């Protein structure tokens, strides 16, 4: 029996353990790969909690890296990256942004400026003065804002298929937060699976199923309307707060890691097929944005979609560690 359990631990992502079909909107019943801590924060008179993992290396190299997750994810999907970086001697900080993961789902005005401030507050509480910042998807927009807002705190900015390479306001029809909320309320396990399978990877594999299980499990919660409202609010944040015009203002070293098969567009369902084909082309956008950032480095992955660190973990990690 012990041998069987050991094999299961090797084969199944740790986040799957103790995970029922219905999940709470703060993921209390999802086991993260490392211990989760909380910092108290305040927004608009509300006392909130921000979850984070702080993973110490066995043999420290004196350097820190902070990992910022995408919109439909949280810290749990960084497992392989955390392990590899920790083994290389890095202290790894992995926050769940307010409104996501195990953090509070508050009704506040979400902004990248505010989230950047909360992440600075987290670093301050941990006594970390400088860190590399890796942002994926929405986390790339936040990482960019953080580097613009607090350049003295960033040793290197690392962007993994970030959204925000385009100003979505210029071609995606505007909808109100309430209209987006109505759309979010229609989420079902089937719709989550369809979206994840069609949007994130060129070819779906069984090892990606845990991502669907978490997204679908939250949709079954009795508190899902609150989760859906917050999701709508952060959709509005992304739509209304572009960073694309400010990449040339970055004053820190920048490395872009781009899966060339990515075709992500925020609000894609609001576009015609013809409009969809004209945007979200990361094989073009990566080069365009890299050309605007003085001294930046562009690393491209053929045949890779929106989440390189999950689709090609070893290749991504090798590229990441070689450029830290």
TrEMBL record:
Top-level lineage group: Bacteria
GO-annotated biological processes: acylglycerol catabolic process
Keywords, ordered alphabetically: Hydrolase, Signal
UniProt GO MF annotations: monoacylglycerol lipase activity
GO CC terms of this entry: membrane
Listed InterPro entries: AB_hydrolase_1, AB_hydrolase_fold, AB_hydrolase_sf, Epox_hydrolase-like
Domain AB hydrolase-1: 64-171
Residues making up the signal peptide according to the UniProt record: 1-18
Record-given protein name: Alpha/beta hydrolase
């Amino acid at each position: 029996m012990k041998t069987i359990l050991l094999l299961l631990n090797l084969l199944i992502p740790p986040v799957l353990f103790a995970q029922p079909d219905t999940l709470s909107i703060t993921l209390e019943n999802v086991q993260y790969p490392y211990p989760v801590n909380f910092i108290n924060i305040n927004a608009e008179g509300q006392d909130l909690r921000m979850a984070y993992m702080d993973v110490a290396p066995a043999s420290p190299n004196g350097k820190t890296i902070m990992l910022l997750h995408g919109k439909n994810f949280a810290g749990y999907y960084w497992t392989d990256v955390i392990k590899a970086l920790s083994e290389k001697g890095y202290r790894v900080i992995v926050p769940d942004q307010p409104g996501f993961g195990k953090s509070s789902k508050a009704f506040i005005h979400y902004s990248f400026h505010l989230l950047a401030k909360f992440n600075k507050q987290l670093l301050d509480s941990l006594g970390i003065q400088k860190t590399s910042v890796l942002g994926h998807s929405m986390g790339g927009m936040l990482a960019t804002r953080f580097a613009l807002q607090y350049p003295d705190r960033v040793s290197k900015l690392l962007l993994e298929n970030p959204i925000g390479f385009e100003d979505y306001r210029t071609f995606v029809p505007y909808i109100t937060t309430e209209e987006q909320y109505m759309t979010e309320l229609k989420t079902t396990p089937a719709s989550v699976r369809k979206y994840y399978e069609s949007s994130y990877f060129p070819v779906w594999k069984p090892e990606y199923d845990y991502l669907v299980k978490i997204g679908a499990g939250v949709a079954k919660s009795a508190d899902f309307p609150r989760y859906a409202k917050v999701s709508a609010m952060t959709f509005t944040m992304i739509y209304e707060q572009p960073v694309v015009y400010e990449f040339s203002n970055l004053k820190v070293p920048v490395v872009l890691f781009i899966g060339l098969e990515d075709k992500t567009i925020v609000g894609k369902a609001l576009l015609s097929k013809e409009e969809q084909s004209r945007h979200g082309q990361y094989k073009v956008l990566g080069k365009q944005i890299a050309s605007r950032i003085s001294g930046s480095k562009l690393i491209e992955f053929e045949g890779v979609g929106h989440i390189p660190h999950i689709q090609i973990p070893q290749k991504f990690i090798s590229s990441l560690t070689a450029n830290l």
